[in-house]
Fold this sequence. Notes:
By secondary structure, the chain is α/β, with parallel strands linked by helices. Helix content is 31%, strand content 24%. Helix 1 (10-20) links the parallel strand 1 (2-5) and strand 2 (26-29). Helix 4 (172-178) crosses helix 5. The radius of gyration is 17 Å and the shape is globular.
Amino acid sequence: MRVFLASSNVGKLREYRELAAGTALEIGPLPNFLQLRPFEESAPTFAENAAGKALHYCRFTPEIVLSDDSGLAVPALGGAPGVRSARYAGPDASEIENVRKLLSAMEGKEAEDRRARFVCVVAVAQRGRMLVVSSDCVEGSIAKEPRGRGGFGYDPVFFFPVTGCTFAQISAEEKNRFSHRGKAFRKAVDFLIPLNLCATK
Length: 201
């Protein structure tokens, strides 16, 4: 089953391709994504943004389109960066700038106040119809400085106690096993695979 990812984020595409390995899904980038009319992710929740994005971009292809909205939520910061995770330090901010702003906001916070969670909502649509929306999260805390060279986004400062490392320090296989994106994607796959089998009978 071919599925197009509605994103220009190469880190996300890499992770989804890794997650789809061994399944009946083949994940690829949505053709001409950057030339298509963009979807404004202005909703206050991850679910609304993910669903709206999937429905928007599925109008440009007859194939199945997958989108996600994901980000980091820190309770001590009122849930920030939240849905603005990719734009936390500004609309054109780099990943490094977002991490720097987060670490600055976390100065002076200790123990429980450093708790954080990664959240991901996966939405899958085709021909203007929503097929599935799934979500999951992973709990951790904010490290006091970046560690590791893997992953992307806030991975270098997201400390995951199960492994005793940040998400940027563990292997891609470990991250995909435990991550918010991995868990949400596997829920979507559990729905999509039977659906495809029924459609081809």
